[in-house]
Write the structure tokens for this entry.
Amino acid sequence: MGRAVQIAAIVAVIVSAGLAVVFSSRFGRDPNLVPSPLIGQPAPDIELPLLLDTGTASLADFEGEIVVVNVFASWCPGCRTEHAALVSTAEAFANSGVRFVQIAYQDRPEDTIDFLQELGMSPATTYLNDVDSRASIAFGVFGVPETYFIDADGIVQGKIQGETNALLLGQTIDRLRQGEEIGSEVVGDVQTAPGDG
């Protein structure tokens, strides 16, 4: 009888350990590691108001160009840190068929404008206000910063989640120009709301 209890206890421990591995590998997964379902799909074509001017713009306005879409917010520390890289890379690729679009995420327009005036802007970038989070929902934005790479045919080819830099942006654009697969890459944390980082 004692031996049967020992065997049952060992089996219970093994089963528990196995279940722990299954649950930790499937249900404990970091949602940041989920690749974007947009990769290989047409980019969402939502018309949004221009942040610094009257009127609207949509991604269809840049048909035939590579488009780098960065989703950002004034309250996001990672967005603040990566901003100079976005401006300089937009300038570096300005005359080569690459357009940068920055979309303000869950931010007050006056705060976003203050952010851009403080940190700088590029004439090679279109700045949009995501009214009612329509673009964020369409892109499946988990948090900010996130950057999407759209080829000249309007297909989403890549995504960087987290704070990026000029080297990574430039390399990704070059890979896209050469027809390489980009996919999703997590390079850092994102924030879903002010103060959650």
Summary: The chain has a mean pLDDT of 84. Residues 101 and 126 are 5 Å apart (CA to CA).
